[in-house]
Amino acid sequence: MTEEHDERTTEERDSDVDDTPAFPAVPETDADDDEESVPIASGARIHRPDSEHGTIPADGVGPGGEEPESATTVAAETANEGSSEIRSNGVPVSETNGGRSGLRPDGGARPANVDADGTLGDVKFTEPAEGVSQDVDGGAPDERVGVPEGVDLETPGYEIRSEMNDIETPDEKTWFMELDEAVIDDGRCIQCGTCVSACPSDSIGVGDDDLPKLVKMCTGCSLCWDFCPRGGLRYERQWKITGGDDNVSGAGDPITEFSAKVDDDWTGGAQDGGVVTGILATLLEAGEIDGALIATESEEEPWKAESYLATSREDLIENAGTIYNQTLALGNLDLGQWEHKLPDEPWEDISLALVGTPCEIEGIRALQDFGWEYGAQEEGVRAVDYTIALMCTKNFNYYSLMGEHLEEQRGISPDEIGKMDVLHGKLMVYGHDGRMMLEEDIENFHDAALKGCDECADFTGYAADITVGSVGSADEYSSVIVRTEQGLQAWELTEPVLEYHDLEDRSAIGGLQSWDKKKAFESLERPFDPDAPRFIDYADHAEHYGTKLNPHDAGH
Q1: Do 456 and 359 form a contact (C-beta atoms < 8 A)?
Q2: Which of 28, 183, 256, 503 has the most neighbouring CB atoms within 10 Å?
Q3: CA–CA separation, 402 and 359 (whole Å)
């Protein structure tokens, strides 16, 4: 638009403009009428060009040499009453007060919802637009817009930590990413769940692949690394702390040993005489515990183990038996998960028993040795008063054992299986009618076993109160090793319902323990040192295993 030239003098133009500014009403004060609350500085003027819209430039304030052009002059120069001319502030002249600019003589804008007398009018809100800003290609307003096809968006890695403000991660900090790099991604995770339980910020959960997974920001506290039996926990040192020197060289120094079975009619579906179930049921009925964390079979996937809190004798009998895959048991010690099954009393008064593999017992013992807080798992960790270890040389990946080896390669569907056992170096599979469907060397299933199990030398659960297994006893009997005073108390309570005698073949247990230890020494890439510190620095581990230092800074 071309501006029209006005040839009138400044005085003529000023006469068309109302010099009296309209201000909001000012509250009355106690000052005399002839007193000025703010004295005017001599020679001081404020000039705000129309284009500034209320901004006060530093060079336009205060006394100066030449007198600047007045604001009223500027306003008058742009006024054109009745014109459709658009102001520099985007407001048509016809929409301003009588064709005059909405700017005030001091350069500010006319207040919204305030009349010339300074009275506040009704506040009006603009109705939000519908079906415009959020309606993307006809999708619902709350529908997330996906990445366009063909567009590759790279998510920043953890190395962003070192790039922010050019600050490097301190060497002494250990993050979940170290555990991920050295244990989980390397296939050495034994699915014990100790890292989940150890995390004080509840940053670790369980992924769809049944492996630990970071679910929110890691704080770098190092506890997940420190307590991992395949990471920072020197498990052989843990044996010595909880069980004494003899645990390192032999099969431990137990208080007593037996071959035993429960004399009851429900033991047919139990494993080797139902001793574990018998002990737990006795503890529950005696009021020694409020529940026992055991394994149960998944309702969706046959022969897949899941953690389960049994709180009655019926619960225990229904879930008797052994399932040969891990449950990440220590990751299920959040008592809130089981609140509906526990007594209505303070959680610090709750008492639990834990049945697990030797590595799980090592983990819970180490956690209990320290007074740190473990987030949502804290009360559960402290509540475990009895531990029962199941003799174990290795455990299996569920999908590899049941899916690939048994169903795909041998034609045995998990639905057909009534019982499984590993005994005398054989994997035995029975149907629901008790008929043996498979007896095969366990070595043929080696690639279905968890890789981290190869490094374990703890066949007999050195850190547990009681160890139970089939090795060393006849069919339908279990070998029982009582290691602690707590274990002895549980045994003495259970004795009336047991049929037992002296351990039949201690050498069989010692021999398998020696074999297991030999296999572990071949697999361990770090020194086996029961006298070294309990925790292994990540840098020391990386030196022996060849993993990266600071993997979070390397884009892990």
Answers
A1: yes
A2: 183
A3: 23
Closest residue by Cα to residue 269 from 77, 433, 150? 433
Beta pairing, strands 417-423 & 426-431:
antiparallel
Which of these ranges, 152-166, 346-360, 521-535, has the smallest mean pLDDT?
152-166
Residue from 245, 261, 239, 493 nearest 358 by CA: 239
How many whole angstroms separate alpha carbon 219 and alpha carbon 174? 9
What's the rounded Cα separation, in Å, for the pair 388 and 500?
A: 18
Q: CA 542 from chain center: how many Å?
A: 25
Residue 510: what are its φ and ψ, rounded to 5°? -60, -40
Give the per-residue pLDDT at 152. Answer: 61
Grouping H, G, I as helix, E, B as strand and the rest as coil, residue 433 is: coil
Kind plus residue range of the DSSP H or E element containing 467: strand 466-469
* SS3 at position 92: strand
User: What is the strand order of the sheet 478-482 is part of?
Assistant: 305-310, 291-297, 352-356, 384-390, 466-469, 478-482, 256-262, 498-502
Q: How far is CA 159 from CA 162, 212, 459, in A?
A: 6, 21, 40
Range scoring the smallest mean pLDDT among 144-148, 264-268, 445-449, 517-521: 144-148
Cβ distance 176 to 203 under 8 Å? yes
Q: How far is Cα 35 from Cα 407, in angstroms, rounded to an integer?
A: 100
**How many angstroms separate the CA atoms of 197 and 204, rounded?**
8
Q: How far is CA 296 from the centre of its chain?
A: 24
Global pTM value: 0.70
Tokens 């000052």, located at residue: 31
The string of pLDDT tens digits covering residues 305-335 is: 999 999 999 999 998 878 889 999 999 999 9
Cα separations in angstroms, 115 against 73, 75, 110: 24, 20, 9
pLDDT tens column, 104-126: 555 556 666 777 777 777 766 66
CB 206 within 8 A of CB 213: yes
Question: Are 537 and 171 spatial neighbours (Cβ–Cβ below 8 Å)?
Answer: no
Task: Name the β-bridge partners of 387.
Answer: 354
Structural Rg of the chain based on CA atoms: 39
Handedness of CA 339, 342, 347, 348 (dihedral sign): negative
CA distance 442 to 427: 5
Which pair of tokens denotes residue 407? 């169903």
Check: CB of residue 218 under 8 Å from CB of residue 177: yes
Distances (CA, A) of 35 to 21, 25, 29, 496: 21, 18, 11, 104
Q: Which residues in 31-177 belong to E strands, given as ranges? A: 44-46, 61-63
Rounded distance, CA 481 to CA 503, Å? 9
Q: Are 292 and 355 in contact (CB under 8 A)?
A: yes
Can you list the positions of beta strands (E) in 208-301?
A: 212-214, 256-262, 291-297
- What is the DSSP secondary structure assignment for residue 226, as one 8-state letter? H
